[in-house]
Structures are given as structure tokens and as C-alpha cells.
Amino acid sequence: MSLELEPEVSLKEQFEALMIREDKLDIQDFLNNQNISDVAELVDEFPDYEGQILANMSVHRAVSVFKILDLPTQKHVIKELPPFKTAELLNELPADDRTSFLEELPSNVVRELIKLLNPEERKITLSLLGYPENSIGRLMTPDYVYIYPYNTVSEVFDTIRKYGKDSETINVLYVIDEKGELIDDIRIRDIILAAPDKRVEELIDGRFIALKAYDDQETANEAFKMNNRVALPVVSNTNKLLGIVTIDDVLWVANEEFSEDMQKMGGTEALDEPYLETPLIKLFKKRVVWLIVLFLGELLTASAMAFFEDEIAKAVVLALFIPLIISSGGNSGSQASTLVIQAMAVGEVTLSDWWKVMRREIIQGLMLGTALGLIGFVRIFIWHSISPEIYGNNWDEIGYVVGLSLVGVVLWGTLSGSMLPLFLKKLGADPAVSSAPFVATLVDVTGLIIYFSTAFLFLKGILL
């Protein structure tokens, strides 16, 4: 006789049953015993209950859930929570996460929320918000453990026990002098392995990496990549220790930068908020500027074709290959632009590498152009074999024109696409604005000039 097992009730179904019963104690117990990620999924699944979900959790767990929600959901939750619960949540949030959230809100809303903070947290938040946008100061947290060089290892452990629970991390401890200046950082491993009566000054080596509060956040990203740390200290211009930046905040910044670059490379201004949350008028303004710029650029293509109007009239067959020529140049330019921008973003390519990049792209352009040129020539040969009347007796000259034009246009596309980001970087602009559509528009115009110049050279006295 076989036993039939009852189907396991899903988390979603359990939650729905509890909400129907409206037993507040059971709801609290249920939510406080779930994984943080599972609760976050419930918030996404039940937007009508998102405020109630966090309100029925212990404040520490509610903070953990709130931190991993996306910005629109965080805004909705804050609106739904009663004022006392909002105050609890904001006061318990780490200073850096609280600052990241507040800087995305309108100033009048920020003023009201700051009033809910206790005096100490309000002071910290106002201090962090005082740093320029996109600066490292906005990312740092004042929750860290610092020690003095004269402390013994035993005293260090006492300090950790006293302040460690409120610290973002205790993997690294920061050694300062009486003036608050950073002397060194020391790993907790070195403390654990040292004798209890040994002093900190005997363990430090004076080699440390520190970030400046007013530096751009991308500097922090580079520093973390190069130094394999989970946290780095942030100091003032006079080397006063102000706070620390942890790897999770830097990863968040890197993700934001990546999204921004992708939007710019697609031919639009970077969005300040999620796509579905962006008002239509604002989205229109972000997109229309680049479209107008690209449209005006394409008008030059029409001007170039008008300049070669006589050649087109004499040899209409040349017009058949215009889309082929200009699209090949645009595609090769977009490829090169994307590769170089990505390499610059991860530090693989710098301005000093411009000649190396150019040399590689010249070789690549010739190789790629030759491959496409051969395909173009073969295509004309095959079509001529099937229908000789399409290209007439001069099919081979037309094939040479198309083949050589593809070599020239693809070579020019790769050079333009690879050099433009470096040129913009040299001028202090964002390389991502040399987006694929922008490079394609540039190559369209010059591609026509290359194509018809080659045609005039080979077909003068024959078709032209």
C-alpha cells in the first residue's frame, strides 16, 4: 500500500492564509522566521501588503529586507509605514544605505524624513548628504571600529566586544592617533594570532590604502579592484579618518555606472530612476535630444547623396549597394566603440594606449573589410552568373568597387569607433556618449564619400 504525501504548501500560500486570518502574532512569527530574500519576494508578490510586511517584522530584520528592495518599492514602503515605524526603520538603517535612499527623494520629502531621525543619526545623515553627489563621502559609513597604537591586543578585544556589533565590518580595524589621523589598518586575523599583551604598534607596518571623501565614486571602484579588500578607510585632505566604504556599496555603484553607460551607448541620456517609474514626459526629454542630434547627422548623408546625384543617375546600379556599404561601416564602428568603451571602463585601456589601439584596429579593419569585400564580390559574381542583365558587361568593375569600398569603409569605421571614445576622454567628456548610433551616423556620411570616390576612380569613362 502506497502512502500519498500531501503537497507542500508554498510560502506564498502560507502568507495568504495568515493574512486572511489576520492573526498579527502569527504573521510576526512567520515573517521573522523566513529568509530575508524570501520576505523580499513576498513584498514583490504582494504590493498591497508591502507596508504591513515590514511593519510586522522586528526592526533589525525589516532593515535587512528594506536594503535589498529596489528604489520604487522602498518609496512605496515608506509611504505605507506608520510614522513611528518609519522612524525606527530609518534610524536603524546603516548611514550609507540611508543616505543612498534619501538622495533619490525630493528635497521636501527628505526634510520631513530627517525630522524622524534621532539627533545623532540626523547629524551623521546631514554630514553625508553634505558631500557632493557621486563622491565617496556619500558612500561612507561612520560605523567602524578604531583603535590606538598603544592599545594591547587584550584591550582591542574589549573594544571589539563593546563597539563591534554596531560596525559594518570587523574584518579590518583602523589605527588612529590622538588627533584622529589614520596611521594604519590591521586585519582581525593579525589581532587574533597575536599575544594578549602585545601592543598594536608592534603589529602595524604603516602600509595602507585610503580613499578621499571628495573623490569620485569610480575611484573607490578601482581601488577595491586593485587591493582585494572588503572595506577601505575614507580620510579628509588632512588624513583625518572620516569613515569607511564597504564592498557592497561599491558593487552597487558599479552596477549603477554600468546601467548609465549602457543607456548612453544606446543613444539616450542616462535615466535617473527605473524605466517603468520614469514619467513619459521626462523619458521623452531624455530620448529626444539624442534623436535630434542623430537626425541632423543623417541629414548630412542626404547631402552627400545629393552631391553624387549625377553619378547615381549615370549608374543606377551603384544605388543598390548604398545600404550595404554604409551599414557595414556603421556596424564595424559600433563594434569597435563598444569594445574600447568597455575596456576603458574596466581599466584595460588608458589614454596612453591610443597608438596600440589604433594599430590593432587598423589591422582589424583591413582583415574585417577584406572578408566582407570578398563576400560582396562573390555575391555580385553569383548574381551575374544567374542573371547577367542585372550588372551588365561591367559586373567585374562593379564588384571591385563594392569590394574595395567595403575594405575602406570598414577600416574607417573601426578607426572612428575606437578613437572617438579616447578623444572624448582626452577632452574630459564621458566616453560612453560616443554611442553606437552616434558612431554609425558619422560613418554613414563618410562611407558614402569613400564609396562614390572609389566608384569614380574605377568606373570613370566606363559607367561614369
From TrEMBL:
The chain crosses the membrane at residues 288-306, 312-330, 366-386, 398-424, 436-459. Keywords: CBS domain, Cell membrane, Magnesium, Membrane, Metal-binding, Transmembrane, Transmembrane helix, Transport. Residues 140-202 form the CBS domain. It comes from the Bacteria. It is a multi-pass membrane protein. GO terms for cellular component: plasma membrane. One of its GO terms (molecular function) is magnesium ion transmembrane transporter activity. It is found in: Cell membrane; Membrane. InterPro entries: CBS_dom, CBS_dom_sf, Mg_transptr_MgtE_intracell_dom, MgtE_N_sf, MgtE_transporter, SLC41_membr_dom, SLC41_membr_dom_sf. Its main location: membrane. Acts as a magnesium transporter. Belongs to the SLC41A transporter family. NCBIfam families: mgtE. Homodimer. This is Magnesium transporter MgtE.
